[in-house]
């Protein structure tokens, strides 16, 4: 399949919309001991599926193309923003903060590390004994 072709059978190959797989059995269920007449249950099934499918088809005809256009533009703007704004800005921050990290790391190693090491040596000679 070329990049221009789309799969007309498997339309959700990444299972993005698994949470909206709504079948009659997922919505309506009669527990044991509370059954309606068979003709009501059978026709409810047909009515549910017909209305769900017809309404979905009507909404997709009415809104599908305009929404696809809007979402395409939205993701184009997000991509543009990441490529031309966010990623370069993050790179600038990483470069500048890398210099700051080296500077402050050197200061801590030169000034604070000897003090901590000396205090560690002083306190390492303390011994605690339990007298019972």
UniProtKB/TrEMBL annotation:
Transcription is among the record's keywords: no
Main location: membrane
Alphabetized UniProt keyword annotations: Cell membrane, Golgi apparatus, Membrane
GO cellular component terms, semicolon-separated: caveola; Golgi membrane
A Pfam family reported for this protein in Swiss-Prot or TrEMBL: Caveolin
A GO BP annotation: caveola assembly
PANTHER family listed in its UniProt record: CAVEOLIN, CAVEOLIN-2
Name under which the protein is recorded: Caveolin
Source organism of the structure: Patella caerulea
């Amino acid at each position: 399949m070329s990049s221009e072709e789309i799969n007309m059978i498997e339309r959700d190959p990444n299972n993005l919309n698994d949470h909206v797989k709504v079948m009659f059995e997922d919505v309506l269920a009669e527990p044991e001991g509370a059954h309606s007449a068979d003709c009501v249950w059978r026709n409810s099934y047909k009515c549910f599926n017909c209305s769900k499918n017809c309404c979905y088809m009507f909404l997709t005809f009415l809104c599908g193309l305009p929404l696809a256009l809007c979402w395409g533009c939205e993701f184009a703007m997000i991509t543009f923003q990441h490529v031309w704004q966010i990623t370069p800005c993050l790179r600038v921050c990483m470069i500048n903060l890398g210099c700051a990290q080296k500077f402050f790391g050197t200061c801590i190693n030169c000034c604070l590390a000897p003090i901590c090491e000396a205090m560690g040596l002083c306190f390492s000679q303390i011994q605690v004994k339990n007298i019972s």
